[in-house]
Amino acid sequence: MQVGFTLKGNKIELRGRRDALCSSPLPSCCQMDARDKQLLRSLRLELCTEVLVDGVVIQYLYQEGILTDNHVQEIQSQTTSQRKTMMLLDILPTRGPKAFDVFLDSLQEFPWVKDKLMVKREEMTVQDPAVSVCFA
């Protein structure tokens, strides 16, 4: 299967195997900020225990065009809530520069998690405002 992306209106539709996409760099205009990728990675286990993505989270991300039908089905096919959250955290970094902010917006039912992510993000910006390393 060929891996790539297609521009549909103002959205980028990724196609192909997700694991193959992760090893293929997206154009810089389509990548999540390296700081946000690092933040999601550093809090991965904590997010898996505190966030239930089954409800509002994935539906909001779908509504806002961050997730596709295939992403939602792939997430919902996971057997536990932790695996569903891990799958979402695997997909989010591939969904473009707005994915992190929309993810924050989706955390309406988890305000303490949203607050923690925002504080950690700000701390990372203060520590190194010119983070330009890509954490794939």
UniProtKB/TrEMBL annotation:
SUPFAM superfamilies: DEATH domain. Pfam families: CARD (PF00619). Transmembrane segments: none annotated. Residues 32-109 form the CARD domain. PROSITE patterns: CARD. Gene3D superfamilies: Death Domain, Fas (1.10.533.10). SMART domains: CARD. PANTHER family: DEATH DOMAIN-CONTAINING PROTEIN CRADD (PTHR15034). This is Death domain-containing protein CRADD. It comes from Grus japonensis (Japanese crane).
